[in-house]
Amino acid sequence: RSKGGLPTTEDRDKAWSRVESESRRMGLLIDDLLVLARMDQSQSLHVGPVDIAQIVRDAAADHAALDPLRPVAVTSPDVVTLEGDEERLTQVVTGLLANVRVHTPEGTATSVIVREGAESVEIDVADDGPGIPEADLDRVFDRFYRADPSRSRKSGGAGLGLAIVQSIVEAHGGTVVAARGAVGGTLITVEVPKTAPPESQPT
To answer: Does the pTM of the predicted model rise above 0.85?
Structure first.
């Protein structure tokens, strides 16, 4: 310690770094809780025509820029249009890719496949990481649930990312499920109807 019992400059820098890190973590937590609160209150989505293919391409490009050590490949028609909330659907895709960045080791490859059906659109996000244990597959969308709680503070996550994904998808009248991939890793499948449900429409 320096004279007068004050910490050294190095100690102060470390303390401030911890404070800033915790502040960022709490800020992310508050943002996530606000999103869930709004969805719980059944606030209307801002529904309009959305090109989900473009959302996926943009999210994949952002993912590649943020984390070039986890490559991503996109397979999709050029244009896939549905009725939905563009901002919220963007959160779905970016949330699924953020989940890959947080919960897989460097070098993990991810594929995002968009399939257009007659009445719905399916988005598959598959990675070749270690995968989710079978016992955890039914719980990964639960709020505050983490298969590996020891990683939460390092990653800044609070176990809300997939809960937000599920909440937004269900608000669009869709479904989301997690499974083991055909050759390992994790496969998360989102299916959203092309026509938004009446209750999601603004009044």
So the answer is: no
